[in-house]
Amino acid sequence: MRPAGGMQVRVQETAFDFGAEAAAFARNRTDLGAIVTFSGIVRDVDGGLTVMEIEHYPGMTEKALEKIAAEASTRWSLGEVLVIHRYGRMGPGEQIMMVATAARHRKDAFEAAEYLMDYLKSRAPFWKKEQTGRDSSWVAATDEDEDALKRW
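Given the sequence above, the corresponding structure tokens read:
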């Protein structure tokens, strides 16, 4: 059994195996009763996306994600938190990020995971550019993304 209270944040260019990450996160967790996982995937809304390019500032990005994860751990009774976020070039269907939360009870695990996802979507210092066969454009935060933060 691992001690409770762990937090792991990884910013990486390489792909990750969601199943292996989730299994490792859950392994030997006899002290916690709920694990919630989520994976964000490159979405091709209009059928023309060829590449999503994500940029970040090393060092600054990790600190910002650690701060968001630490805030979630403060607000909810979590035993462990995992955040993985990729950067670089990714095609439609590839995984961009993963969040996992572990808690004694499901409400804390679910709410903390939602909080992390909302804040990672809107406040994590990543810059996303969508490229199609015709052009490229930077992705801006939407009103819906901003509205999601208001509940926290």
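The chain has a mean pLDDT of 92. Try to locate this feature in the token string yourself.
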